[in-house]
Amino acid sequence: xxxxxxxxPDKNILxxxxxxxxxxxxxxxxLVSSIQTSVKCPVCNSPTHKIHGQGKFIVVLVDIDTxxxxxxxxxxxxxxxxxxxxxxxxxxxxxxxxxxxxxxxxTK
Length: 108
Fold this sequence. Notes:
This protein is α+β, with helices and mostly antiparallel strands and 108 residues long. It has two domains: 1-54, no CATH class; 57-108, no CATH class. 18% of the residues lie in helices and 28% in strands. The strands form three sheets. The chain has a two-stranded antiparallel sheet with strand order 1-2. It has a two-stranded antiparallel sheet with strand order 3-4. A two-stranded antiparallel ribbon has the order 5-6. The radius of gyration is 16 Å and the shape is globular.
């Protein structure tokens, strides 16, 4: 993780949250978050605490107990998330005991 932290473009504005390595797909997914408290919106140039109007969004599905990445969904609509999860099959879905989500209102 220390090596990945050193690769961040600016440690004063980005914080490394987690890293997932999928050896089968030869993929590394790095989750970062901004540590800035306020920025100017790139669309309207107004000071804001949230980025708005960008349309850049991805749903990250994580096993709460292990922290392991289990899926990514490019859309935030409930129907799209359900379609991805249905592909896992009934055996997997029946094992889900609890669901947690950010209730900020972004999910449609």
